[in-house]
């Protein structure tokens, strides 16, 4: 039943979503097998026991995500959704109350950090690509899975003489309505120079580069974005509170827009956040000194 469902997912969900659903169901199925239980259909007590087994071993965020994934899968299989039952809900509340702790948000990638990271990028193909990746991520606020999918043809000049880069699909735009993102002339210059150098080999702005140093006509793997950021951070000798990650672009961009007085609705649109609570989660740890209530007179 489950394998047939995942087969039907193809084309309806992104590969990342399917991968996450499969991983979450696999973890649950392994627990059921160890307990001598059948994964589907599931009772409320069974799911409560599963949650209790994870409490203290997995983060509360992981537990909540796994329960949400199972609920979605049960509904898609047209099975009773026991994740909404009292037993499961109380088990999640117990885990959150006993083991919950604030989630740490990514370290913002400030302009000063950007310049320090770009200074580590040499004139090799890898160095030039990474320099461009840093600038593109800094300006577009995109998730790493979206960042690596940009193509050269996505960059266009507007009638007003400015430039936009088109995002065709995102986590919050699964049906490809698209979004036009403004980009700076220096970034456009970097993209055009890079295109002259590698455009005959690839359509992707951030292509994979193989072990022999050859440009591939496939996007950089999104998992490589974090690895590149952390390698560049180490090379730059930056001692930050947390390692940089793909989310660092988004935190910095949201903070900059907020400080400029941009309304939350526009910040959500720019960053691709569906809800205000999600956007605020990025911002709450990094409020600046301008939010100080008491000031000496």
Can you walk me through this structure?
- The chain has two domains: 2-99, DNA polymerase, domain 1; 111-286, Orthogonal Bundle (hpI Integrase, Chain A), CATH 1.10.443.10.
- The protein has 13 helices and five strands.
- The protein has helices at residues 2-9, 15-35, 44-54, 60-76, 86-99, 111-118, 125-140, 144-147, 185-198, 223-236, 247-259, 264-271, 276-283; strands spanning 155-157, 163-167, 179-183, 207-209, 215-219.
- A hairpin with a 5-residue loop joins strand 4 and strand 5.
- The chain is mainly alpha-helical and 297 residues long.
- It has a three-stranded antiparallel β-sheet.
Biggest sheet strand order reads: 1-2-3
Assembly type: single chain
Name the structural class.
mainly alpha
Per DSSP, the total helix count is 13
Low-confidence stretches: 291-295
Number of strands: 5
| β-strand amount | 5-15%
Instruction: Estimate percent helicity.
Output: 40-55%
| CATH topology (level 3) name of the largest domain | hpI Integrase, Chain A
CATH architectural group of the largest domain: Orthogonal Bundle
Q: What is the N-to-C succession of helices and strands?
A: HHHHHHHHEEEHEEHHHH
For the sheet with most strands, the description reads: 3 strands, antiparallel
Shape: elongated
CATH class category label of the largest domain: Mainly Alpha
* Count of discrete domains: 2
**The CATH homology group name of the largest domain:** Intergrase catalytic core
Rg over C-alpha atoms, rounded to the nearest angstrom: 22 Å
End-to-end separation in angstroms reads: 69 Å
Task: Estimate the mean pLDDT confidence.
Answer: 85
């Amino acid at each position: 039943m489950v394998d047939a469902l995942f087969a039907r997912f193809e084309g309806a969900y992104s590969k990342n979503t399917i991968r996450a659903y499969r991983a979450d169901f696999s973890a649950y199925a392994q627990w059921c097998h160890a307990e001598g239980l059948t994964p589907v259909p599931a009772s409320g007590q069974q799911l409560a026991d599963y949650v209790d087994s994870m409490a203290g071993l997995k983060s509360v965020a992981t537990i909540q995500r796994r329960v949400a994934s199972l609920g979605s899968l049960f509904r898609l299989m047209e099975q009773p959704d026991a994740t909404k039952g009292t037993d499961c809900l109380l088990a999640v509340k117990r885990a959150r109350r006993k083991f919950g702790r604030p989630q740490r948000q990514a370290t913002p990638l400030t302009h000063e950090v950007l310049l320090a990271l770009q200074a580590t990028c040499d004139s090799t193909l890898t160095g030039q690509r990474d320099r461009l990746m840093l600038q593109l991520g800094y300006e577009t606020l995109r998730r790493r899975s979206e960042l690596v999918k940009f193509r050269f043809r996505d960059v266009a000049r507007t009638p007003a003489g400015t430039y936009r880069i088109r995002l065709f699909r995102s986590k919050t735009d699964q049906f490809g309505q698209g979004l036009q993102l403004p980009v700076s002339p220096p970034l456009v210059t970097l993209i055009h120079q890079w295109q002259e150098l590698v455009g005959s080999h690839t359509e992707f702005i951030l292509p994979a580069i193989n072990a022999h140093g050859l440009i591939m006509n496939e996007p950089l793997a999104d998992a490589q974005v974090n690895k590149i950021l952390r390698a560049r951070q180490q090379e730059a000798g930056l001692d930050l509170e947390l390692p940089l990650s793909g989310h660092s672009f988004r935190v910095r961009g949201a903070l900059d827009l907020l400080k400029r007085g941009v309304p939350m609705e526009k910040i959500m649109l720019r960053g691709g956040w569906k809800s205000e609570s999600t956007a605020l989660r990025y911002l709450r740890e990094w409020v600046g000194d301008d939010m100080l209530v008491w000031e000496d007179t």
